[in-house]
UniProtKB/TrEMBL annotation:
GO molecular function: serine-type peptidase activity
Signal peptide segment: 1-19
Organism ancestry: Bacteria, Pseudomonadati, Bacteroidota, Flavobacteriia, Flavobacteriales
Keywords of the record: Signal
Gene Ontology terms: biological process: proteolysis
Official protein name in the record: Tail specific protease domain-containing protein
Organism: Aquimarina atlantica
Pfam families, per the entry: Peptidase_S41
InterPro entries with a match to the protein in the record: ClpP/crotonase-like_dom_sf, Tail-specific_protease
Length: 524
């Protein structure tokens, strides 16, 4: 059947299927094997980042990972088991922006969510975990060494690429009922030989563990004076230091007003930018240094308006490279893979006209272009001038990061270092900033054959002639620096690593801030 593609950015459509009308006979072992082979083949042909990052950051290579899961797929004999093995595979796919979704209707079973009575912390770069209550180092979970538990988790059970980011992921999963060797753990053993029982209670809180649309809270900065506070960003001041705290870039309403000169509605990017602009103008004669805090900032929408207002020098969009495959010859899909930017189409027309596309081998990467096309109407890599109000002079520009700094917050740190001469302080960021994603939808047609189709980025509406089994979304572009090196899995070089330990873990953000001030401001 011909693929039908429509651009839908705000409407989410769920394909509903009456389970009673579906033939419940399971796939043959040959079909399961073929399904897995086709899934791997699609990933290896289309993926632009995840496989390379796994091979760079994990002990278990991509070849080892796929062989392990091939054995797991061979064990399934019903759709419920297939669902679990498929999701297990996706859980260890090294890309924080990817998703794996099993869509074949299976019998719904109520899944209890648990909260552990034990909350844990971790140390970095000396990797260890400890009980936050007792401050004792955890040696074992049940009878399995903590070292072995975490090693397996890093290699098979997290999409995070760095050790620090994997630690944060492990903490969350452990505190929410992580299974060890298929079982919910009952106890932990400390390094001194003593032990503690783990008690679980059902987690009745249906809200997300992280409310991305919740407004910023700066109550923890008790000895700082609040100058301006917006929806997601706030400006504070102390001792000639301006502190800009950005919770995330997740705004419900976006804006194409790069300079934020138009009247802005509340709780938007531009309303925050305008508040920061007003605040920085108010304190311009009383500050010599500026600190941008994007610790625990998981990203969100495009941050170019923040760059235009907060970076005093000219800057560029991030550099992205698309893989050359036949998908790019489908105009509708190509538009989806570029978020509908007209400049991206002009860029593609130019590389066709100049024979660059033709000369690039299938599977290789096309030349880098600008991601959000802010510097050029053709998506060329061109400088973007800062706002006139952004041309402020500071003795020091510092960006605070940690392992939970991700996506567009990653982008902010990279670009402030490259163009704003910023010092990077904290722990290595997540280095997870995929731009374009392609989704592969697998289904069984009316003749019982396994088929697939493709959709891009935010696309939600599509049609297939058969019953969908699953879909997965993987990186189709890679983000690179000016040397052409991939940024995914490659954190910005730290100018000061602030170690995490038992004493500072629960107050880590302020600890990093104070260390940055001590090292680069007070010492000078």
């Amino acid at each position: 059947m011909k693929l039908i593609i429509k651009s839908i950015f705000f409407l989410s459509i769920v394909i509903s299927v009456n389970a009673q009308d579906i033939d419940k006979s399971f796939l043959t072992s040959e079909q399961v094997s073929e399904l897995y082979k086709q899934m791997i083949s699609e990933i290896e042909f289309l993926d632009a980042e995840a496989i390379v990052v796994r091979n760079k950051t994990k002990d278990i290579s991509w070849d080892q990972y796929k062989k392990y899961h091939e054995k797991q797929f061979k064990k399934v004999d019903n759709y419920q088991e297939l669902r679990q093995k498929f999701l297990d595979f996706g859980r260890g796919f090294v890309s924080g922006h990817s998703y794996f979704r099993f869509t074949y209707p299976t019998e719904k079973t109520k899944k209890n969510r648990y909260k552990s009575s034990i909350k844990i912390g971790y140390t970095y770069p000396n990797i260890s975990f400890f009980d936050l209550e007792t401050k004792k180092t955890i040696q074992k979970i049940d009878d399995v060494s903590m070292k072995d538990v975490f090693k397996k988790f890093v290699n098979y059970e997290t999409r995070s690429n760095g050790l620090g980011t994997s630690q944060a992921s492990f903490k969350f999963r452990f505190e929410n009922g992580l299974k060890i060797n298929g079982k919910i753990p009952k106890s932990i053993t400390y390094s001194d030989g003593s032990s503690k029982k783990i008690v679980y209670h059902k987690n009745e809180d249906k809200a997300s563990w992280y409310n991305r649309y919740k407004a910023i809270d700066v109550s923890g900065y008790k000895d700082w004076k609040l100058v301006k506070k917006g929806y997601k960003a706030a400006l504070l001041v102390k001792n000639k230091i301006a502190l800009v705290k950005i919770k995330n870039f997740a705004y419900k309403r976006g804006s194409n007003d790069l300079r934020c000169t138009l009247e802005a509605k509340d709780s938007t990017i531009c309303s925050d930018i305008q508040k920061l602009r007003q605040g920085l103008q108010l304190i311009k004669d009383e500050v010599d240094h500026i600190v941008f805090d994007v610790q625990d900032n998981p990203g969100g929408k495009e941050n170019s308006s923040f760059m235009a207002e907060l970076c005093s020098s000219q800057f560029m969009d991030l550099r992205v490279q698309y893989k050359k495959t036949g998908l790019l010859l489908n105009e509708n899909l190509r538009l989806e893979l570029s978020y509908g930017f007209s400049g991206a189409e002009k860029w593609f027309e130019n590389i066709l006209k100049n024979k660059i596309y033709e000369k690039t081998k299938t599977g290789d990467f096309l030349p880098a272009r600008a991601d959000f096309c802010r510097g050029s109407e053709n998506c060329d890599l061109a400088y973007i001038q800062p706002n006139k109000t952004a041309k402020r002079k500071f003795k020091n520009v510092i960006v605070l990061v940690n392992e939970n700094t991700a996506s567009s917050a990653d982008d902010f740190a990279y670009r402030m270092k490259e163009y704003g001469n910023a010092l990077i302080v904290g722990q290595p960021q997540s280095a997870d900033l995929t731009f374009a994603l392609v989704t592969v939808v697998f289904y069984i047609d009316d003749n019982g054959s396994i088929k697939k189709t493709y959709i891009g980025n935010d696309q939600r509406e599509y049609k297939i002639a058969g019953q969908e089994i699953f879909q997965f979304s993987i990186p189709y572009s890679r983000t690179v620096n000016k040397q052409g090196e991939m940024l995914q899995g490659n954190p910005a070089k730290l100018d000061l690593l602030v170690e995490l330990n038992k004493e500072n873990f629960e107050n880590r953000e302020l600890y990093v801030l104070n260390n940055a001030i001590k090292k680069f401001i007070n010492n000078n």
